[in-house]
Amino acid sequence: DMLRTGGWLADQLELERIEVDPEKLGGVPTLRGRRWPVERVARIAADDEGRAILIHDYGLDDRDVDESVRWTEAAAAL
User: For FRET with 5, which of 13, 16, 56, 75 sits at 20 to 30 Å CA-CA?
Assistant: First the structure.
């Protein structure tokens, strides 16, 4: 069941908004309850304008964005 809560990486980073569901987007890490791939969120949030668009236009909140960025950075460092 750890996989559905983002796997060991999300557990290690104490992330609560990341999930990996083989039934959703082929198991790509996503924001819990949404079909937003974590890597896409992090890529869009790379600048302030992109972050604002995610929050204001798509209804994500700061924590969704922050956790996506942290997970992506940690995965890239592996």
Answer: 56
